[in-house]
Design goal:
Helix content: 25-40%
Shape: globular
Strand order of the largest sheet: 1-2-3-7-6
Structural class: alpha+beta
Number of strands: 15
Number of domains: 2
CATH class of the largest domain: Alpha Beta
Strand content: 25-35%
CATH topology of the largest domain: D-amino Acid Aminotransferase, Chain A, domain 1
CATH superfamily of the largest domain: ATP-grasp fold, B domain
CATH architecture of the largest domain: 2-Layer Sandwich
């Protein structure tokens, strides 16, 4: 099924599939720090993130949110629809952490009165600059209607995942989303995993936020698997 590799990032590889309308996503064991630097591989991380992504995509589909997920292929691979990607990263923030604390002097860990949705242009050479809705329209990346739909979907996805994770004693700190077009519809793309969200373990409230840090992930791997995948 796996054909030509068309992309490799810090957390996954993307291949052409036998059906030219599909893609194969392979999750990697590599761990990344909060700054995005790659650390030593963490055995089992790719499999866990594949399981989490499949679970969360299916969860969102049950709430009538269209995603690019088609099916599992192996313990580290997913089959997904090929989309016309919108080159924007959507960040949804629920808790003061990282950039919000540094730039706005908010108290670390403070739950925000309402989620903040931010847009970042996917441009690694310019460190993915923050942009707004007017930039997206003016630069030709999306229409006004598409932006409204992206905002609506991001809000709904965040609410669903917050509730799902809270029931398992995790707090969703922030969430990174990407979207694309499929037959004129806006569809959730990329991945939903420990690579694209930060969590706080409410059973250990003083524990550092779980993100891509190898040490934190190694400590919580079995716990996360049990609480997210066995519930």
């Amino acid at each position: 099924m796996k054909k030509k590799k068309i992309f490799e990032g810090k957390t996954k590889k993307v291949y052409e599939a036998e059906n030219e309308q599909d893609l194969l996503l392979e999750f990697k064991d590599d761990a990344c720090s909060q700054a995005g630097a790659k650390n030593a591989p963490l055995k089992g991380k790719g499999h866990l993130n594949q399981q989490i992504a499949a679970l969360l995509f299916r969860l969102l589909e049950s709430y009538h949110i269209s995603t690019h997920y088609l099916r599992d292929v192996s313990d580290r691979e997913l089959l997904a629809k090929k989309l016309d990607m919108i080159p924007v990263m959507v960040m949804v923030r629920n808790v003061a952490a990282g950039t919000l604390v540094k730039q706005y002097r908010l108290q670390e860990g403070k739950e925000l009165e309402c989620p903040i949705i931010e847009y970042y242009l996917k441009d690694a050479e310019r460190d993915d600059p923050m942009i707004n809705e007017d930039h997206l329209v003016s630069f030709g990346h999306a229409t006004s209607g598409e932006i409204r739909e992206i905002h609506r979907l991001a809000s709904k996805i965040n609410a669903i995942l917050k509730a799902f994770l809270r029931r398992r004693d995790f707090q969703l700190v922030d969430l990174r989303l990407e979207f694309g077009r499929f037959q004129s519809r806006i569809v959730l793309a990329d991945e939903l995993s420990l690579n694209t969200m930060r969590l706080i373990d409410l059973r250990q409230p003083k524990q550092e936020i779980i993100d891509g840090d190898a040490a934190a992930l190694a400590e919580h791997l079995a716990e996360i698997r049990s609480r997210l995948l066995s519930a």
